[in-house]
Here is the input.
Amino acid sequence: MEVYRATAYDKCDKNRSYETYIAMADGGLDTDELDARLKPFGLNDDDIHYYFNWEDDLGNRGYIDTDEFFFLIGEEVIKNDN
Here is the structure.
């Protein structure tokens, strides 16, 4: 799992942006497993706004664009633990 700070711009509400977290994680993890991995960093599953697949390679991008949000990718908070 990798977790990054991000600024999310809401495409439905052009005047709204906020600071959040985004992550790359295995799709098979349930909420309890995610919470266990995030807990040492003071985070839980509710803190992660959006999960991406590994092929999205967030660490090599400055931003990522989805249908609903535009994310500016910031500091890596949790490095890959595989």
In short: The longest strand covers residues 69-78. The chain has a mean pLDDT of 87. The chain has one domain: 2-78.
